[in-house]
Each structure stands twice: as structure tokens, then as C-alpha cells.
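Margin note from the TA: students keep mixing up input and output lines. Inputs are the sequences; the output is the structure of the whole complex. Example:
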Amino acid sequence: MFKKIYPALALALLSIFSAAVFAQSFDSAEFKDGAWVSYRDAYRKMISFEKYSGAKQFLQNNIRIAIIDKKSSLDGVKLALESKKTHLNLPLDPVGRAVFPMLKAAYDENAELRVNRSDNVVKFEYRISIATRPDGIYDMADLRNACNQALHYLRYQDFLKYSLKQCVGVKFVYAKDQNDVSLKMTNTEHVLTTLAVADGSAFENDEFNAFKVATFKFAGSVDKGQVVSNDVPLTISALFD
Amino acid sequence: MKKLLVSTLPFALIAFCAIAQAQTNLSDTMFTGTLDSSVSMPDSSKDNYVGAYLAAVPKYQGSDHMKAELVLDAQQEWSNGVFLSVDSWKPYDTYQLGMHLSSVQNVDYGVMLGAGQNRAAFITDSQGNANKDWMPFIGGFFKYKLAEDIQLSSELLYTMGQFKGGAYADLNAIKSFSVADHQTLTLSVGTILGNRDFATSQFGISPQQSIDYGYPTYTPTAGVEDVHAGVNWHWNFNSAWSLNSSIYASHLTSNVSGTKQVQNENNGSLFVGLAYRF
């Protein structure tokens, strides 16, 4: 008896489903055709850092909007958390990162994170970076420690991709229009060496050279000395090989 | 009370519809488009999926006849790790109530209990009546995320029921590919291992059944029961609605295929339908 009503039931369900798919649209026109991710999916990725029990005091974890269209830039790019009841703007820093809001209401409402640029221009990323210091003075041992913390966390997330990687250095990232960037290292004899500054990307596997970067490579196994930045960088990212 | 009614209504509906069960062992983890552990959510939140699929499936395992039918999938997960899942197409573990015991990103294990409806479709088709009862099970699962997009998954269940029940393991390797924005292809390859009691409960013909159906008696062998592979294409329209399309194929091995029930060792199925997450 139930077999007979199946086709009718299927048709009814499908028409309800398809009507609902098209009915569910967002009011904010600016974000309407933009890139988006499910807040629940993003939450699951972000919470893993909170739950991670390994050392992480040098690290920060962010959701990031990365530009993938080289003709475009981060100027005017906005990120918002949207659901039926909520519209929350999430400010982006100059490398495209935002502080991820851990909100039960947004999870329960099955919210979306939306950008006012299309999928062809931007993509969502989850990025681990090394915290910057206001005084600009970094112990070499701390930088190596920070890089290793980042590597261990990434191994925990994706063993296959990171199990054979090693820390080789860290990258200091500055704004492209910043002309007086100076990054120096002092070794054991207190001799100052200036590190080269060049155009580059903010993170690993990021082809977009929208920044000025200076790379500090670890030498040998002994870290004695400091790396001194005359300005607070936008971010510091770990380099692996 | 009203809220409770609304949240359990899909399950009641699906429990009702699932009585006419399909017979294919496609895993529902492929339908969510993510391999992340579901244990991580805010306190006292929950995550729900309901899916309705038009499916072409074998009438029963080993049948050479296909049937078209509406199959349903519902999953409900709570922040404390408890989950409830109904997959009307699954023969062994149709109804599941379980709990995730670990909350670590790449390791997900837990316990579960539930019931499947065994060989009811075969027995009905053979004009038999005996032993169409439910087959309850207890067991556990262990999943390891080897990479962001690769998961190794195992399920070990001990079934209780007619012909002494038995134990089986379902082992799968799952790899997902992002093919376009919000579109994921998920491939799964695996095998079902059964002990002799389990193989007998699924494929054996006892002397009594032999009299009932007129089939020769048959005692299967323990070991690899089937090898299977599936592909699911998952397309998210927004955070709530998604389209799933799946192909699943399985091959019953000679450990079990000598029975009269198995007219065709190679079984396939197709699924197309929409899922709603809320």
C-alpha cells in the first residue's frame, strides 16, 4: 500500500524542497552573489585549535579571506556573519584575517559567513600565524619554537601533508607601501645583519605577492641572538620545507 | 513540548517510511560533504540532516531485480556526542543510537546500538514468513582522519537475532575532492567482513528455511563478504540545502555467493535527492 503513495510523496517533497531552496535568499544585496561558507563547517575547523592540547602560546588562529584574482585587492572587501536573525560585520585586517566569533546563536541558526566578492575573486582559508610583539624584538629561539608549534598543530590537522615537513624559518609580512621596513638580526658577537626585503605573499601556498616580506631562516640548531623589526609587521608566518 | 515534537517528527516519519526497506550498504557519512568530526559544537547545540532520495536499488542483496523507491536519511547530533541516525536503505544498521567518546580532531570513536531488518526483503520475495524480525546490534566505530580530505573508517557490530546473530566489520577508506565551489566528490572503497554466524544469518539457508522456500540448504563461510565502492557528488546551495547524487557498487564474494538468494554477485545502486540541514 505504501509503495503506491511513494511517487506522489516524492513529487510533493521535491517540489517543497525546490520551492524552499529558491525562497531562502539574503536581504543584504551587497553579499548576495558573494563567496560564502557554512558557519557550522567553519566553526568545526576553528574549534579544533581551541581544543588542541599541544603548545600554542606563540600562535593565533584566524579565518582569512584570500584574494585569488590578481587584478583585485582587499580594498573594500567585507566579511559578514548572516542568518535570518543576525547580520554581523567582521572586520578584516590588512592580510584579510578576521577574529572568528564563537557564537552559539549563529551555530543554532545555521548562519553563513559571506563576502561581498564572488568565488572567482576570493576564497576562505583557515590560517595559523605567529603572534607579533609590540616591541619588535624577537628571540631567535622563540621564533623557532613558534614555527615548531605551528608545524605540530598542522600535523595534528593533516598528518599526511605535514608529517615530513620541517621548519625552515619565519616570514615577516609588511604592507606593500611601507618603505622604511628594516629587519635586522643580532648574532652572538652583536653584529647586526640586515635581512633582505622583497615583494611576497603573506602565507605559505599563497601566490598573491601583495606584501613586502623579509624572511628569517633558521641556521643550524643553535639560536643565539635576536631578530629586531623597526615596525610591527602585519603578521609573521611559519615556513616549512 | 511543541519543540520536541517538531524535532522528532522527521524521525517518526522516517521510521514509518523505512518499513519498506532498501538493501544497499552505502555509507551516509559521504552525504554531509565534510569529513570533520561532528563532536565540536557549542554546548547544548545540535546539528540535524534530513535527506530524501529517489533510489534505484536491488530488491535485496544478491537480487538480479532492481526497484525504484524513495529512501530517507536523518541524522541528529547533540553537543554531548550523542547521535541518532536512520538510513532507510541500509540492511544491517538502519537505525543507530550512539555516542562519540573522543573529541579530538583527527580521531573519532564511540559506541552505538540499534537495529536493522535483516533479510526481510528476500524472505518476503520468496513468499516466506518466518524470521522476518528485527536484528538488534551493539558495537562501536573508529574513524581516523589521515589528512584533511582522507578518512579511514571502521565499524564493528555484534548482531543479535535469529540464527544466533553474529559479528561483522565494515571497513572503508574515504577521500574527498573539492571539484568546484561548494561541490565535493567523495570516493569510498571498502569491505564487509563477517564471522560465520553473521554470514549464516544473512545468506545461509537452514533446513527449516529450505522446507519453507524450497531452496537447497546452504552454509556460508566466514571472512570477506563483500567489497564495495561508492561515489557521491555533494552540492551545497547554501548552509541548509544540498543536492546529493550517488553511485554505489558491491561484489559479494564466494564466501557467501553460493546461496540461492544470490542470483547476481554484483549489485549496484543509484541515489539522487535533496538534503536539508537545520
